[in-house]
User: What shape does this take?
Amino acid sequence: MSLVDLPVELLYEIGLYAVSSALPQTCKTLHAIFKASPASYRAQYLVACMEQSHPREDTIITKILRYPICDEDVLEAYFRLTPSEAESRKRWEPELPRRLFRSLATNSSSMQSPFGPCVAPGHGRSESETLRWMEQDHPLPLLRYLYTCPHIHPPAVNSHKGYALTKAVQARFVPLIQFLLSHGAMPHLKSSLAILIAISRRDLPMVRMLVERSETTHAQPMGEGAGAERDRVSVTPEMLRIAVKCKAQDIIEYFTREKGCIPDIHTLLMLE
Assistant: This one.
């Protein structure tokens, strides 16, 4: 008799005892068995992992969210199993795990750097692919749960220097971008990388979305009214230089005419 011949219930017990992510990878049969495990078992596995690693109280939810098995149902089961942590969970702000966003821009190899080749909207993919993102696409359902869950503090939306927003912009995932911005995502992080990517994509609507708050009036030029202080980010000569380099004429006019950005000497030379 081999390991795979054991009853599923016994294999689950062995998994909890071993607390090893390698066990399900031993063979295809074990992988299928553990992949089909219920949320209640996965929550037990997370409890066992935390008991083994003894993380600081303020990092427990952050570490749990990093596990690929962690979804809404597993979290609900975990909360039921750990009522003693109920109060402490609400005190600490967990990080948003990179795993939720890492695979978003799988078709964006041409956008390795905002200073690399400029890419027009939709380049490299069909219109249907460009507009494929929907409100129920991963990871939005889980994010909505995390930001409305009464059992934990809402996660830090700007974790890892705005990684979530940057990946969402790179993937042109508009519903996700809107969600992150509505929860306080800051496009200026990491030298405004998210905005530079949008500029390099020559995507004026995306640039507007990142720069302006939803209540900002588009017709109100910066410097001539009250709209300027409501912007999330102040347009910089560096942003204008990237727009000129990419020959994004509509973005150039937006920066100079609506946002009052004055080009530096290097940008002026590029315009000649």
User: Anything to note?
Assistant: The radius of gyration is 23 Å. The chain has a mean pLDDT of 88.
